[in-house]
Amino acid sequence: MVRSTWFLPSAVAAELDPDREDGDGGGRRVRRTLRDWVVDFCFFLIAVFIGLIGADGAAKNPALSEHMVVLDQLVGAASCAAVWLRRRWPVGLAVAMLLVGLVSDSAGGTALVAYFTLAVHRPFKYSALIGGLAVASIPVFYWLRPDGETPYLVSVGLISMVIVLVFAWGMLVRSRRQLLIALRDRARRAENEAALRAEQAQRLAREAIAREMHDVLAHRLTLLSVHAGALEFRPDAPQAEIARAAGVIRESAHEALQDLRQVIGVLRGGEAETSSGRPQPTLAALDTLVAESRDAGMKVVLDLRVADPKAVPAAIGRTAYRIAQEALTNARKHAPGAEVTVTVAGAPDEGLTVAVRNPAPPGDVPPVPGSGQGLIGLTERASLAGGRLAHGAGRDGGFAVEAWLPWG
């Protein structure tokens, strides 16, 4: 990209490679590219060529004395040298050529180059003002220095048309450059927006992964913790109870591994739910969840007031399942021994309500570490589904989680 800017106009190159800019005493300046040097040299040659034609015409004009011809040629030579300043002071050079052009035929080429440069590098208001003054000065010029070979009106009309065409050409070049820069800016913004969208998608994916991993594994790992703790603190428990606890631990570990494998498999290949062999749970699997909790020693009362749980949309049913699962997991950790009530009610066009409540735990409860991320994740999950979720402690020391999900 940096190499290619040497073949672009300096204004465009500065936009593509801002490091090319350097300052000077007069303000912002951009180092010339290779193309700029070639164009400036060509314009210098054009100014010299037109200046020689003007000098020859001045020498043949009987209305001019020999001293005026020499002065005309000196002014024209100085004007041609000033072409190299056109990029730095386009307005100043155009104004100077407007004044010099009134007294010099040889400066005509430089004047045209200055007008073109002004139209390219400055807004339209400068071109309109100076262009109007330049056209208005043509009748004055030919009145002071008449051309003996060409009629007055023809000379005025021809030169005025040339000046207008030069300004029009310059404004066309300026518009094209602005279009190029605008397209480049649009492409850059599109790239930045695409990068931001990709970053946002990655962040949302990470959040979804974290939420799903928490919902899937927290329930299983809590079962492992509870039964492992029972075995640790009751080593003299009956053999049957130890075997039962070990079986729950083994089954919970197996289920946790299966759930983990399922989530990772879906995330890796974006596979359908049925391809992993373990479909995502829906509201119809709520009975199984409650049975697992009861097998783990919890007291759970299920009040399912939905006529046909399988008729609940899969996405809504899965969200309701995860809410109940997380609430049961929290009740198991923070209120062991308390009876938990799970109530699910609703109908199409009315919405689905999920409520999980537990009273204060009987006896002291050892402090259990928790960050509250599970409840935050449930709130986000309910919000993404178009519903709402509330949770908090009651006056009796219990805790309640209530959610409403749309069922349309």
From TrEMBL:
Residues 35-177 form the DUF7134 domain. The chain crosses the membrane at residues 37-55, 67-85, 92-118, 124-144, 151-172. It comes from Streptomyces spectabilis. Keywords: ATP-binding, Kinase, Membrane, Nucleotide-binding, Phosphoprotein, Transferase, Transmembrane, Transmembrane helix, Two-component regulatory system. GO terms for molecular function: ATP binding; phosphorelay sensor kinase activity; protein dimerization activity. One of its GO terms (cellular component) is membrane. Its EC number is 2.7.13.3. This is histidine kinase. InterPro entries: DUF7134 (IPR055558), HATPase_C_sf (IPR036890), Sensor_HK_TwoCompSys (IPR050482), Sig_transdc_His_kin_sub3_dim/P (IPR011712). The keyword Transcription regulation does not apply.
